[in-house]
Structures are given as structure tokens and as C-alpha cells.
Write a structure and sequence with these properties.
The structure holds two protein chains of two kinds.
Chain A (H helix, E strand, L loop, with lengths): L3 H16 L9 H8 L2 H21 L30 H10 L5 H9 L11 H12 L13 H7 L5 E3 L6 E9 L2 E10 L2 E8 L8 E4 L4 E7 L2 E7 L2 H14 E3 L2
Antiparallel strand pairs in A: 1-8, 2-3, 3-4, 4-7, 5-6, 6-7
Chain B lengths: L1 H32 L2 H17 L10 H20 L11 H8 L4 H12 L2 H12 L4 H8 L3 H18 L18
Helix pairs in contact in B: 1-2, 1-3, 1-6, 2-3, 4-5, 6-8, 7-8
The chains are: A alpha+beta, B mainly alpha.
């Protein structure tokens, strides 16, 4: 990369990298083309992605728990329809009810599903939503050795919904996200060859396993009782290994 | 009876939406104002406003963007109301020093201090991109900028942080251009 034109291309590419190390869709087309043939720029991108992971850690300031009782909703539409404090914690109730039928089948479904899948397809609306959501939170897909704290993990995946054992692997991202109008736990687990996304969706009933993919990521939606689990990553071997692991580490409680 | 059920549904929807994104709301507010007690006020006001205007949220898939927009406006309102004294942006307040001291390790402490010291116009898009996963177009929309300006600010923000931390850029790497904020 000694030619002046190449140096200019490198500078332009690195400006794009520094502006958006992860989401390359935001780059000019020239930069996307250039990086494919420039090892130096790819190395710079790796450096900046690692730097972004550090920034993400620094930005993750502790957040106090949300207490709806402390939000003074009087004097607004709540007055017209007062909300009884006795109903506090409906989320848990809803979760519990919806998870009630998600039972030991997860073990067997997870074990055999990947073997019985049909050929990959563009995916259903749910598959598209899952992939779009992962793409939207692509910053979560970083290689990391920083585990999510057990307190946070317990908050995102309440014990009355599911239990994650140590066999699940290193969970480096846990967030409550909305899929199809429902808050669902969104986890990223470090696989042997990269991060793997898991979405626990007790409200999303499926009749059969469904392969999903978008050219970069691939995975599966596994029916589990009246819900489903999405397992999505880049390396099929990781997905298979994680599927094996899940059967031993995830338990839906009824 | 019907009204009561509708009220419960509304409340349930509010709790689902807010419960999912409260953490994002709080962190966004905290990085905007850089003061935990102010962030708590801002989030409280934002929750009230969200409750009042919940019916205006058509799709729950747009909830996070909707809530963060409310937080941004409430933060601006808070500063309009309070008109806090002008402070030296280079000096950490005791509240910011406390946030930094609570960092789990030295690397996070140094980086957190550097982010606190970034100008608002650089810090905000960085938070939206790295912490919230916003695209540069979404950031541009929220901040009322064009995409090019957002890209420039993000580029400069990262280089400023690396410069503060003494991280060397590779040969041929980019350096922040002179001049003001895009």
C-alpha cells in the first residue's frame, strides 16, 4: 500500500472504520470494496472493533432497578383507570403463564431440531424480525471475555422463566428486547468461533423448526412448548455445539 | 368494566415497553447530563410523558426510539428550567468522579473519564451508536443532523478518545482534522 492512490483509499477507508467499526452499511461503497483487498485496513478495523467493545464496557454504567410504584402516574390517564398496587409484578405473572407450557420438550427439541430441518429459506416474519433485531443490535456481536454480571442476568432471565446453567457458556450480553410486541431475553454467548445470539421467546409458538439466515448469520428457530428459541451465529459448528449445550443448561419452568 | 380492562391493558403495555428499555433510557440520560441525580429526574419526567402519550406509540417495535427521543427532550427541558451554572468542562464534577471510581478496572476508569470529557456533540452520537446500536441515519434523525455530520463526529470522537488514552494510530491511519464540530 505504497501508491499514493492506495494511501488515499486507506485513509478514506479508515475514516469510515473510525466512524462505524461494526456497521459497514454506513460506509461509502469505495471503502467497503477497498477493505476486502487491504489487510492493513482490516487489521485497523479489528483494532477499532476491540476499542468499541472497551467503549461499550465504559458506557455501561450501573442502572438502579425500575420501581413502577415510584413513578407518580396520578393526574394523568391512570386516574381514569386506577391501577391497583396488588397487580404489581404483572410481568412475572405474564411470563410465568406464558412459560407454563414451555417444558422439558426444550431438551429434546433442541437436541433433534437441527438434524431435522428443511433447507434454509428466507424465513417467516418471525425469522425476519429476529435477524433484523440482531442486525440492529450488531454491537452486541463482539468477541469478549467479559461476562454479564449474575445479578443482571437474573434480572433479564428471571428464574421463574428459565434457568441458565454454567454449561450455557460465557454470556457476554443480556438485554430485554421487544420481538413481536413482547419483551424477550436477548443473550449473546461466546462460542468457540464467535458470538452466538440466543432469543428466548415463550410467546412465539412454532409448529416446526425453521432455519433462518441472511448471508452472514444463520441459525434456527426451535419450537419449545408454546414458545420458541432462536439460536443465531456465524459458525454452524458453534450453533450445533450450543444446541447440544442448551439441552443441558436451559430449563423452562412451569 | 370495559374501561377498567382497557386501563389494565394500557398499564401492562406501559410496563412492558418501559421495562424493556428503562436501562437504555437511564444510561442515555446519564451520558447526556453526566450527573446521576439529574438523570434520575430526567428519566422520571420522561416516564410521565411516555405514560401520557403512550397511545401515540403505534408500534411497540418503535418503542426504544420513541422513549429515547422523549428522554432527549426532557433532558433539554431540564437544562432550560434549571439553567445550571457554567462549569469547566475539563474538570470532573464529584458526581462524575464517583462514577469513574466505581468502574470495575483501570482500563474502564480511564476510558470512562475520557468519555465524560468529550464534548456533548461527540459523546451523544457515540453513546447512541455503541450502547444503543443506532445506525448513523437513526442518529442523524434523532439529533437533527445530516448523516455526513454524524459520521464525522463519530470518527472524531473515537480518535479523541484514542488520543486521550495514548493509543497510537497505525501508519496511514486517520487523524482528526482541524476545525470545529461538524
Amino acid at each position: 500500500m505504497n501508491e499514493p492512490e492506495s494511501i488515499d483509499a486507506c485513509v478514506a477507508c479508515r475514516a469510515a472504520i473510525a466512524a462505524s467499526p461494526v456497521a459497514t452499511d454506513d460506509w461509502p461503497k469505495d471503502a467497503r470494496t477497498h477493505i476486502e483487498g487491504c489487510a492493513d485496513c482490516r487489521a485497523y478495523q479489528a483494532t477499532m472493533r476491540a476499542f468499541d467493545a472497551d467503549i461499550a464496557r465504559a458506557l455501561a454504567l450501573p442502572v438502579p432497578p425500575l420501581d413502577f410504584d415510584a413513578v407518580p402516574l396520578a393526574g394523568n390517564p391512570a386516574d381514569a383507570d386506577p391501577f391497583s398496587a396488588a397487580r404489581r409484578g404483572p410481568s412475572n405473572s405474564v411470563w410465568l403463564a406464558l412459560a407454563a407450557t414451555v417444558v422439558l420438550g426444550v431438551i429434546f427439541a433442541a437436541r433433534f431440531a437441527l438434524n431435522d430441518l428443511a433447507a434454509p429459506s428466507p424465513g417467516t416474519a418471525l425469522g425476519e424480525q429476529v435477524l433484523a433485531h440482531i442486525d440492529h443490535e450488531s454491537f452486541s456481536l463482539t468477541v469478549s471475555d467479559q461476562a454479564v454480571g449474575s445479578e443482571r442476568l437474573a434480572r433479564i432471565v428471571p428464574a421463574d422463566v428459565a434457568r441458565l446453567g454454567p454449561e450455557t457458556g460465557l454470556v457476554t450480553y443480556a438485554q430485554s428486547c421487544i420481538i413481536n410486541g413482547h419483551a424477550v431475553p436477548h443473550l449473546v454467548v461466546q462460542g468457540q468461533n464467535g458470538p452466538v445470539t440466543i432469543l428466548l421467546m415463550p410467546q412465539e409458538k412454532l409448529d416446526a423448526p425453521e432455519r433462518i439466515g441472511n448471508g452472514v448469520l444463520s441459525g434456527v428457530l426451535l419450537p419449545v412448548g408454546d414458545g420458541s428459541i432462536a439460536i443465531v451465529g456465524e459458525d454452524p459448528q458453534d450453533l450445533e455445539r450450543l444446541e447440544e449445550t442448551m439441552k443441558n443448561s436451559v430449563t423452562w419452568r412451569t | 368494566m370495559k374501561s377498567s380492562m382497557a386501563g389494565r391493558d394500557r398499564r401492562r403495555r406501559f410496563e412492558t415497553v418501559v421495562g424493556a428499555f428503562h436501562q437504555d433510557m437511564y444510561r442515555y440520560a446519564l451520558w447526556l447530563c453526566r450527573d446521576r441525580s439529574v438523570a434520575e429526574d430526567v428519566v422520571q419526567e420522561a416516564l410521565l410523558r411516555a405514560w401520557r402519550s403512550l397511545d401515540g406509540l403505534r408500534e411497540d417495535t418503535a418503542a426504544r426510539s420513541w422513549l429515547l427521543t422523549i428522554v432527549r427532550r426532557e433532558n433539554a427541558r431540564w437544562f432550560e428550567r434549571q439553567r445550571p451554572e457554567t462549569v469547566d468542562v475539563d474538570a470532573l464534577t464529584p458526581a462524575q468522579a464517583a462514577e469513574i471510581a466505581e468502574a470495575p478496572d483501570e482500563q474502564v476508569r480511564e476510558l470512562r473519564a475520557a468519555i465524560f470529557a468529550l464534548e456533548d456533540g461527540y459523546r451523544e452520537p457515540l453513546v447512541l451508536q455503541v450502547l444503543m446500536g443506532y445506525s448513523t441515519l437513526e442518529i442523524a434523525d434523532l439529533m437533527g443532523l445530516n448523516q455526513g455530520a454524524v459520521l464525522t463526529r463519530l470518527h472524531r470522537a473515537r480518535l479523541k478518545l484514542r488520543d486521550t488514552l495514548g493509543e497510537a494510530e497505525p501508519p496511514g491511519g486517520t487523524a482528526p482534522t482541524a476545525g470545529g464540530m461538524a
